[in-house]
Specification:
The protein is mostly beta strands. Helix content is 0%, strand content 49%. Strand 7 and strand 8 form a beta hairpin. The relative contact order is 0.31.
């Protein structure tokens, strides 16, 4: 029922800011109790959590991203967004938005932890 869709640029230059938007339909991002999450997967790597925003509006960041990421939401459009600053080629990945019932702190990510996923959007960081 709930559907999520990522949107944003496919190519970002090093040192710039990556801005992604997740549009949610079939559900409201303020409805308790969910965590709206950004996840990525680099080539040959595991899924990696980035940040989440709860239905209450509280934000959570993984330690490796807290210095340069920001997660926000717009309740009027039922969207949430990710800004990732100072990107490098290591940030090249498929970026997903997803809905989870918990705020997960484990390093390992399983798809089953989230009941809804977007299809993902490819982001390449290159000059």
């Amino acid at each position: 029922q709930v559907q999520l869709q990522e949107s944003g640029p496919g190519l970002v230059k090093p040192s710039q800011t990556l801005s992604l938007t997740c549009t949610v339909s079939g559900g409201t991002i303020t409805t308790n109790y969910y965590y709206w999450t950004w996840i990525r997967q680099s080539p040959g790597k595991d899924l990696e959590r980035i940040a989440a925003i709860a239905s209450s509006g509280s934000t959570f960041y993984r330690p490796s991203f807290e210095d340069r990421s920001s997660i926000t939401r717009d309740t009027s459009t039922n969207q949430f967004a990710l800004n990732l600053r100072s990107v490098t080629p290591d940030d090249t990945a498929v970026y997903y938005c997803a809905r989870g019932s918990k705020c997960y702190y484990s390093d390992y990510v399983t798809r089953e932890e989230y009941d809804s996923w977007g299809k993902g959007t490819q982001v390449t960081v290159a000059p």
